[in-house]
């Protein structure tokens, strides 16, 4: 899949956190669909999508950053959230559905710029902390830093070519990008392209002082 960053630039800060991990393994039901004569006869079909949900999900947080005097750089660790794990997979109950093909079909339907996270990739977040190091100059005050994943969930109906077999119902969990941000608590939470950024809001509420503009607008 394509790796990306979710960025916030309201204060001119170059907000970009790398997350190099992405996601997952296919559900066994989808893989079993590759076997047998029924699967071979239903190898070329069409997907109809419904119930598509897409949201930025928080996967990691740094400790609150409080800089009492101006500094040129800041470093630390982004720790994965305990109990949070997203793994691309496909569930299906019939022949002809392969997990990787279903996820590719969803990517085509959504017209994503990069391939969606595919079953060969590990789960997100990684179990280990990620080091960050910013050398941006004139840093002072309170900041918050987070990682997130652009999680995508969808239902589908798979119909075999020619309609000879019963349509297969299934469900996909994947994501488009991973990323994050580094922002000042002195600014309101910024929403890129007008899309609510749930991960940034949660990070601001968790890490910024309660009376800060970021926390109040989150």
**Which residues sit in consecutive blocks of at least 5 with pLDDT less than 50?**
2-36
State the oligomer.
single chain
- The proportion of residues in beta strands is 35-45%
Proportion in helices: 10-25%
Largest sheet: 5 strands, antiparallel
Mean pLDDT: 81
Total number of helices:
5
Task: Give the topology, please.
Blueprint lengths: L27 H5 L4 H5 L3 E18 L2 E16 L8 E4 L6 H12 L19 E31 L7 E17 L13 H10 L5 H5 L1
Antiparallel strand pairs: 1-2, 1-4, 2-4, 3-5, 4-5
Notes on the structure:
With 218 residues, the protein is α+β, with helices and mostly antiparallel strands. Helices cover 17% and strands 39% of the residues. The protein has five helices and five strands.
Q: Care to give the gist of this entry?
A:
It contains 5 helices and 5 strands; from the N terminus they run ααβββαββαα. It has about 220 residues and is α+β, with helices and mostly antiparallel strands.
Descriptors:
alpha+beta, 218 residues, 5 strands, disordered N terminus
């Amino acid at each position: 899949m394509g790796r990306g960053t979710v960025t916030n630039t309201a204060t001119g800060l170059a907000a970009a956190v790398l997350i190099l991990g992405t996601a997952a393994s296919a559900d066994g039901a989808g893989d079993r669909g590759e076997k047998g004569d029924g699967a071979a006869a239903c190898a070329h079909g069409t997907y109809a999508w419904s119930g598509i949900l897409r949201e930025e999900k928080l996967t990691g947080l740094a400790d609150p950053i409080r800089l009492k005097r101006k500094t040129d750089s800041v470093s630390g660790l982004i720790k994965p959230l305990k109990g949070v794990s997203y793994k691309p997979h496909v569930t299906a109950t019939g022949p002809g559905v392969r997990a990787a093909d279903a996820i590719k079909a969803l990517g085509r339907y959504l017209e994503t710029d990069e391939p969606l996270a595919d079953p060969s990739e590990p789960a997100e977040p990684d179990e280990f902390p990620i080091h960050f190091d910013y050398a941006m100059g004139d840093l002072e005050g309170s900041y918050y830093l987070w990682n997130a994943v652009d999680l995508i969930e969808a239902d589908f109906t798979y119909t075999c070519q020619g309609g000879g077999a019963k349509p297969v119902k299934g469900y996909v969990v994947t994501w488009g990008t991973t990323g994050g941000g580094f922002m000042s608590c002195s600014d309101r939470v910024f929403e890129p392209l007008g899309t609510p950024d749930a991960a940034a809001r949660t990070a601001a509420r968790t890490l910024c002082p309660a009376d800060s503009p970021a926390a109040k607008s989150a």
